[in-house]
Amino acid sequence: MYRRVLILILIILTFGLVFPQEDLEDLSLKELLDVNVVSPTQKALRINRAPSVIRVITAEQIQINGYRSVGEAIMSIPGIYTYFDGVNYIVNVRGITGGMRGNNRIIKVMINNQPVSFSYNGGNFLGPELIPIETIQRIEVVLGPGSTLYGADPFLGIINIITKTGDDFDGGNVSLALGTENSNDMSFGGNCAIGQKLQHFEYMASVSGFGLNRTGLKIPETSIQYVGGQSENDVAHPYSFFTKLSYAPQNVGIFTLDGSFQYLDSYDEFADWGILTHNNRISLNNYFARMMYEKNFAGNLYATAGLSFLGGGPNGNDELDYGSDVFTVHRDMGFMNIDFKGQIEYSPSEKISVAAGTNVLSQNFNVGNLWYIFNRDFGDNSTGDSVTLQSAIGDTVFLNMGIYTQAIYIPSEKLNFTQGLIFSHNSTYGDFYNIRFGTVYNFTDQAHCKLLFGTSFSPPAPEQLFARPMFSGDAVGNPNLVPEESKNFDLEITPSNTEDFGASFDMFYNSITNKIGYVYRDGMFSVENLNPVDVMGGEAMLRWNFKNLTTQWSVSYQYTKIPDNSDEDSLFDYSYVPSEIFEYPTLMSYSSFSYMIPQIKIGFSFEQRYIGERSASQSNIALNGGEKYNLPAYQILNLNLFTKRLKMFSFGKTKFSLSIRNLTNEVYIEPGHNGIDIPGIKRTLYFQVSHNF
Questions:
Q1: E strands, 547-677, where?
Q2: Alpha carbon distance 133, 448 (integer Å)
Q3: Pick from 558, 567, 550, 460: which is nearest to 510 by CA?
Q4: Residue 48 · residue 440 · CB < 8 Å
Q5: pLDDT tens digits, residue range 413-458?
Q6: Contact in structure between 73 and 56 (CB atoms under 8 Å)
Q7: pTM assigned to the model
Q8: How close are the terminal C-alpha atoms of the chain, in Å?
């Protein structure tokens, strides 16, 4: 089948080359060096002046490398270890992981500075359900805490997705993709977007949907109890929608209305509560709608205000199966957030900028029950009956309020200072203060040094506080949890950042206290605040560009100091397994090579990603008799062939791509929990055609 698809693609590409062609309208490397980022300060700054360790992935890089989701794209970022757990992409930052049911809580994901987390568990979607990939202008990834501007939750990093505008589309785009994922069954996807800029009005809207089949993933040999099993009916149907409307009458300001809908629907064959039961189906919706106003007064006073509504919960298809032959479980929970944010920025001169703002967030959670749906007649219950064995907690409201200030001082062209302070009040956990200091020194226009310090906090999610056990030994919510806190030091040195060559080196130190995690001890899971953990390490990046050739290489190293608590008691014979075990590689590397052949208008990119050894999870080590074992290192190779936009029809332009992930079909393992490790994704192949009109 692969051979047939490849022959078809080559025929289409060859046919396309006989038509008159025009160059792709992409962001050049020089423009990338000058791009203004907004995530570190909420003020547009060039990367070399931004007081954060920040990495940017552009729309051009997404196209060149054939990424189909944000989760795939950020795998190229040094200092971030990302893998797919069978349902979602899991992000781990600089030695710290979310652990069991972590759901990407350790980062804050935003769309145009709007948080989009699934607040009930604090999780973040990163697959195709997050946002249509064609909508993304760039992805800004900030490593380090961000509480001084964004309040709670940007614990160890921020992923901010900046979308395209109506002017970027200036018409419409339709994309269709066809391929395979781990099986002989076809997978498919599509994206449709429209947008335009008129005199004072601008609009854009984009929708995407996929039908994915990953059936046939085999259980790794490290999962002793499940060796020989493989996934069945392992399908997913993620959908996403994003829209944005702007109205900018002269001298009045800019009014913006935007919104997003995320629909995650995926079978979960490797769920820690029900492994290979073939019925676990994670089906959730998540959405936001926001109204914003911004205006520049007299050139040196800038004000913004926004009101947003966020909500989400399970869909009717959501179903959990922990292995009972009598019933499955349906979750009754959800949330509705109302978030107001306002900021005023004053710049009395080109050297000084002062901002002050407030953020008020009201979170209403429906902490419902687990409903047991009978699959067959049992006792007094008939097939289809539903019962709950617990009393409802009811609605729970959390109020979070923050007042922050930020000052930027630029005494010279070479030097700038940033200082931020936020006071946060949580209706449950009281008051918190977080600070950030940043000093940036520019040796030249192409070389700089950054010295950074910041703190952050993240309160427990309702799921961690009020979780109901699904089966005997499952975790019970812990209302005594306290917020997680972190401190971060960074030193980044960039000796060169020109259009032809770039180099950057970073050293960091993180101190984490009260990290929240699920701990397996004496046959049961519990939710606990873990002991303090210190992490130190470094990252290096090199980039070289020559005419139509671009190469990039990065490497990251981290060391996590885990406290020794071996004197704690255990009821069983095996040695105590410390709860502070993070399944993170000591060494990672990434390299890419892309080249455009101008004569025939075809390009290709080649990626290599190396992930070093990682410890197995705390629960899997405990279930292995307390004997520690590591997951082996692996290397993944990706290839993407693509064309520039081709003038094949009288209207619009067309481009093609062929993306092959895991080119060598490498067999590898990712960390799992409760006795199972996750099989890595096999070779996937996608052919995509995209037409702009």
A1: 549-561, 587-597, 602-611, 614-615, 630-631, 634-643, 653-661, 669-670
A2: 32
A3: 558
A4: yes
A5: 899 998 889 898 988 899 989 898 999 999 988 899 999 999 998 8
A6: no
A7: 0.90
A8: 32
